[in-house]
Automatic annotation (TrEMBL):
Pfam families: DUF4735. PANTHER family: UPF0764 PROTEIN C16ORF89. This is Uncharacterized protein.
Length: 117
């Protein structure tokens, strides 16, 4: 799995493989494989989050998902501030990817806290 994650990284994290990459990092992190706690990988995953205060995983602007995916996008609700201003968010959160990314971040943080003192 590490070689596959490394290959995805070297390929520049193609959209179609991002979900698989995040799953690899989360699952192998859960199994405590330290090679998966790479700062460059965590930074890349963080860059795929939305810019809103909610931080859910989203596809890049202009990217059309034209392949089968297990991640059904969910339209994000307006925050109280957005409602007050009459703004309607156009973000489509990817719940599956968001959940695995959150697991990867949490496990990475836990690992660093335990081993980087």
């Amino acid at each position: 799995m590490y070689q596959e994650a490394e290959l995805i990284s070297e390929m520049g994290y193609p959209h179609i493989l991002r979900d698989l990459f995040v799953e690899h990092v989360a699952i192998c992190g859960f199994l405590r494989y330290p090679n998966f706690f790479r700062q460059d990988w965590i930074d890349s995953m963080l860059s795929w989050q939305s810019e809103s205060e909610y931080g859910c995983m989203v596809n890049d602007k202009g990217y059309q998902q034209n392949f089968w995916s297990k991640d059904a996008p969910i339209a994000r609700r307006s925050s109280p501030e957005e409602k007050e201003k009459g703004l309607v968010p156009d973000e489509m959160c990817l719940p599956h990817s968001t959940m695995f990314a959150l697991a990867a971040y949490s496990l990475s943080w836990d690992y660093m806290e335990e081993n980087c003192k």
